[in-house]
């Protein structure tokens, strides 16, 4: 009998501890993202309250999620490090930099897109990267660390040698995608090149005189994760139900996108205020590697890590993509 009571007491402690831990989980969550349909899953997660739904199913009720849009990844990562937001949804380069800078205290949760990003130009002189001169400006979301800025470094190293890896760095200027679209539409603007992203790149390519220069698949030879959710390991350890809810909500949102892209795009329009017609957005979804690259598994991230380590930006070279993703994410088919 004494053994039975001891066992029941131990069980009570375990259950009580679990209940206490669950009660302590944060319920007011802030998540960031950037403009564009690369973040389409997040728009469905917001409008359908998918994180809130999955958290409630696992016992954490009354969760509220504040979604905040930033023009570039740098501002998002600054907000995460400052404790101003809980989770960010931005590019692979920013995840790697924070993982390295914090010595593993920032890690990925799950990805949501790996569509190609395209560099466009309205300058008839610029057909390829070989045509970029010292005076030519290239708009990128964040100078030096955005996906687009790093892609330019990788392209430069491949074309001109490792000692020229930063050849295009002086050409880059920081502009959010909507501002860069306005610059490309203005023939008199000093910025005539934009390393863009969906849907902006397709809007730009419809303009007279605007053409493709290169894209991420051409540079890397494969897909590249464009949007990944990541957070601090401290937040993840204290909020396991929220982390699970983000994973499950992302998976559900991607399933919804593939089953009914029109409804997903209507959610995007309602959240973002994008005036592009549903018909035009649907046409963009039919562009190569758009629909099939809404995916949860990291793509091309070790190629990015290898480059960043080679040029000294990353002090630590990860042995595998799982080094900079949470243990809960090891089931993803990443690379």
Walk me through the structure.
The chain is α/β, with parallel strands linked by helices. It has 14 helices and ten strands. A five-stranded mixed sheet has the order 7-6-8-5-9. Strands 3-10-4 form a three-stranded antiparallel sheet, sandwiched between helices. It is globular, with a radius of gyration of 21 Å. The termini are far apart.
What descriptive keywords fit this protein?
single chain; 335 residues; alpha/beta; 5-stranded mixed sheet; 3-stranded antiparallel sheet; 14 helices; 10 strands; 44% helix; globular; disordered N terminus
Compile the SSE list and pairings:
Blueprint: H1 2-23, E1 28-33, H2 40-47, H3 50-57, E2 64-69, H4 73-81, E3 87-90, H5 92-101, E4 106-113, E5 118-121, E6 137-140, H6 147-160, E7 172-174, H7 177-185, E8 191-195, H8 200-205, E9 211-215, H9 216-220, E10 227-232, H10 233-238, H11 240-259, H12 261-272, H13 278-285, H14 301-310
Parallel strand pairs: 1-2, 6-7, 6-8
Antiparallel strand pairs: 3-10, 4-10, 5-8, 5-9
């Amino acid at each position: 009998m004494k053994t039975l009571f001891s066992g029941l007491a131990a069980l009570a402690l375990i259950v009580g501890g679990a209940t206490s831990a669950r009660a302590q989980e944060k319920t007011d969550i802030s998540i960031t993202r950037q403009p564009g349909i690369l973040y389409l899953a997040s728009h469905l997660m917001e409008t359908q309250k998918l994180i809130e739904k999955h958290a409630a199913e696992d016992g954490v009720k009354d969760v509220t999620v504040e979604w905040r849009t930033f023009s570039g990844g740098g501002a998002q990562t600054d907000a995460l490090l400052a404790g101003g937001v809980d989770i960010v949804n931005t590019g692979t380069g920013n995840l790697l930099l924070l993982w390295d800078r914090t010595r593993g205290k920032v890690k990925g949760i799950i990805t949501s897109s790996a569509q190609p990003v395209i560099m466009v130009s309205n300058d008839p002189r610029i057909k390829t990267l070989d045509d970029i001169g010292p005076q030519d400006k290239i708009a990128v979301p964040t100078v030096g660390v955005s996906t687009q800025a790093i892609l330019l470094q990788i392209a430069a190293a491949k074309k001109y040698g490792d000692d020229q890896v930063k050849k295009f760095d002086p050409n880059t200027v920081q502009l959010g995608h909507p501002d860069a679209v306005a610059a490309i539409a203005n023939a008199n603007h000093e910025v005539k090149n934009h390393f863009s992203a969906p849907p902006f790149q397709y809007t730009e390519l419809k303009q007279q005189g605007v053409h493709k220069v290169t894209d991420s698949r051409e540079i890397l030879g494969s897909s590249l994760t464009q949007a990944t959710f990541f957070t601090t390991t401290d937040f993840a350890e204290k909020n396991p139900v929220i982390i699970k809810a983000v994973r499950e909500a992302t998976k559900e949102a991607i399933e919804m996108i593939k089953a009914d892209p029109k409804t997903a795009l209507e959610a995007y329009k309602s959240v973002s205020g994008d005036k592009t017609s549903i018909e035009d957005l649907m046409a963009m979804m039919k562009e190569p590697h758009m629909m099939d690259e809404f995916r949860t598994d990291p793509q091309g991230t070790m190629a990015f890590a290898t480059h960043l380590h080679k040029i000294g930006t990353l002090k630590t070279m990860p042995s595998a993509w799982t080094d900079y993703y949470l243990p809960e994410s090891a089931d993803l088919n990443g690379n």
